[in-house]
Amino acid sequence: MRPEDVVNLDAYPILDRSDPARTALVERLRQELEENQFVSLPDFILPAAREQAVADAMEARGRAHHNNSNRNCYLHRTGDPSLPDDHPRNIMLSASTKMIAYDRFSDQSPVKLLYHWEPVRQMVAEIVGVEKLYDNEDPCQPVNLLCYETGDRSAWHFDSVNAFTMTLMLQAAEVGGEFEMVPNTRTDDDQNYDYVGRVVTGQCPEDAVAVAREAGALCIFRGCNSLHRVSPVVGDTTRVMGVFVYENEPGIVGDPEVNATVYGEREAVAG
């Protein structure tokens, strides 16, 4: 399979940067991201590519690392004893997912072909408003397959330092697995702790936006200052999602100790 066999180029004409249709597409998506803090690109990949990516995930599922943890919405496993018990930094939330690291599934997987393809990377750079993006060079991080089975969920959280997050829905759950987001929960200048506390304790459900995530949809969102979560999954169908990590400079790798908590100990990797 070639990258051209993965991306739906009829709907997303991204190859020629001088094409007016591409210019109009990227500008529309950039504005939507700016206004809403998220943008969804339905049918971004072709059906055969999506089916192959799901098959790759099912083949590698036994090599996934099961993350089952209690963390606050800042992704910390411990709170701050100097703060009140009801402070959001001391409210621990349960999350459960199965993470398939980059080095645990096929190099020929459509999600890897998509991730490493320059036309996609350049399109994303323009949508998020940077001149250039680079592939992550960590053995685990560049693109992952994230699986949710019955009972799995992602609790309310902020993404740590990422200016944007990019995901690709490959297979939806039968029930649940909804992606919800509260845009602009905080700002760079105001942690807005009172409001964050109300969101994570379920006091303002009307503020959560359900982001359309049908199979084949690519989503780019600003998760650093917008709380988001995935509701619990129910049913026999595994929810499968690709998660992509691009960098603002070349040569970026992750902290091995952090990787071990997310992906498991690496000495277990075969080959």
From TrEMBL:
A Pfam family that the UniProt record links to this protein: HalD
Ranges of residues in domain Fe2OG dioxygenase: 136-271
UniProt entry tagged with the keyword Chaperone: no
Transmembrane segments: none
Gene3D superfamilies: q2cbj1_9rhob like domain
Sequence similarity: Belongs to the iron/ascorbate-dependent oxidoreductase family.
Name recorded for this polypeptide: 2OG-Fe(II) oxygenase
